[in-house]
TrEMBL record:
UniProt KW keywords: Iron, Metal-binding, Monooxygenase, Oxidoreductase
Entry keyword Protein biosynthesis: no
Name of protein: Aromatic amino acid hydroxylase
Gene3D superfamilies to which the protein is assigned, alphabetical: 1.20.58.690, Aromatic amino acid hydroxylase
Pfam families recorded: Biopterin_H (PF00351)
Organism: Flagellimonas aurea
Amino acid sequence: MSYESNPILDKLPKHLKQFIKPQNYENYTAIDQAVWRYVMRKNVDYLSRVAHKSYVDGLKKTGISIDHIPNMYGMNRILKEIGWAAVAVDGFIPPSAFMEFQAYNVLVIASDIRQLENIEYTPAPDIIHEGAGHAPIIANPEYAEYLRRFGEIGCKAISSAKDYELYNAVRHLSIIKEANGTPQSDIEEAEKHIDHLQQNMGEPSEMALIRNLHWWTVEYGLIGTVENPKIYGAGLLSSIGESAWCITDKVKKIPYSIEAAHTEFDITKPQPQLFVTPDFAFLSQVLEDFANTMAVRTGGLSGIKKLIGSQALGTIELSTGLQISGEFSNVIENDGKPIYIQTTGGTALAYREKELVGHSIAHHKDGFGSPIGKLKGINIAIEDMGPRDLKAYKIYEGEQIALEFEGGIKVEGTIVTGTRNLMGKIILITLENCTVTHNDKILFEPEWGLYHMAVGQHIVSAYNGPADLNSFDLTTHKVTESTIKSKKDEKRLQLERFYEQIRHFREGKNTTISRNKVFQALKRDHPKDWLLPVELYELAKQDNNVEFQQEILDHLEQIKRDNPKVGHLIDDGLQLVNGTLVS
């Protein structure tokens, strides 16, 4: 096991555990720690005034330090007090898996940390975004329940085949943008590819719509009033650039509603508008309104068509409670209703999320097809027939029968047996020597073996994933691209050593280090680095070494002239030290 488990993580299904990786805390460099410290000090100073009150309270409750990158397995010992846990993953994981983790009260944390060059914002999920953004807010019970419920509903959302292509493209961009030395042309090409995909997605899938809701609440949500909003979204809480930008009048504020599901976003740019919820409870209200539009609650012809379009494992549930899980490939319809459904490849049948004995993917390895609906000319549906009714209509062991359904599906064969649910309703009828046809088309032939006919008048639910998690091998996720760990040259290693020496000095681990020597070497060998001079200035100010302070300030002024883009970062760092930062 690559991670330290606990009672919450023990409950995770096996297919989610495949995404967990060790945090490898020892791989964080002193530069990484300095980036964390800078962002957190600036955020806490600023966010204490503009974030929802749960944020600062949550930092204390979740044990997140301002000075040190959190060890998430140490964090787990504190998170368990509020019924949550955290795991490390490698960057983006598929949206359905991400949401399913939430359904189990598990916070997914990308353990990498952004480069100093991307200190204000990165499209890549990192430990600043996840640990400093998501974790503190879940200390609020109402919000934590919203997050769990969102995961529970979101992981049932049906994707389209194009969604996965977009997921891979966004993951690729996040990886190359955080990799040292990636040519700007490669980044621009990746951004253009994402833009092209987003412009050609077609009708948005359920996953695309609910991902929009996730973005405008969990990631980029504001709370309170349009006139005086506070920040609670993790993307804003972890972005020292956008957390200030979002409060200004340059960003349009819109009252939160289900319309947010139809508002797309661009992960590569600051958001032009944000949604404001009056309180956390209202988030759950909108979520339930959206869930009422999903196939998991509406089923029907549109639900089965969504599953066919997803080209992925999904489940339909019939009005008898019978659940059919597989990759759906075809539906025959009549008068706007499904009258026959077909899967391809391994298919499993279940009832109440438990696989029926004798109906695993081994038994239905070549797919499964069945009529849906009522028999022609008979008022009572098969599912509503009691034992005497079934006998009267010759749906009885040993009887040779010809069943014609509304819409023209015919099932002819000899009844072998039937399977009933807990309420006594018949949910499956098994026939031998069976032929199934629709008009002149043969759907099943006697040579294919026993025919298992599902019983159900309606499709009441359709959703992503299997009914019984144990029916399928779900631990087959292939990572197309991993986070790039660039080989460090001697110059980079030297800079890391300088940061480590100053960190050890500040923490009292080694007070014999000459800060002046480090500073002179830094000026000579790393004249563009600005964060370590800010840390040296902080130490010089603590010692009241005015001369050294001035020398550092002069150097920082030169950096600002040479690279105006970092000027505001330097100024904010100095103001933090001087206690004068006002955003």
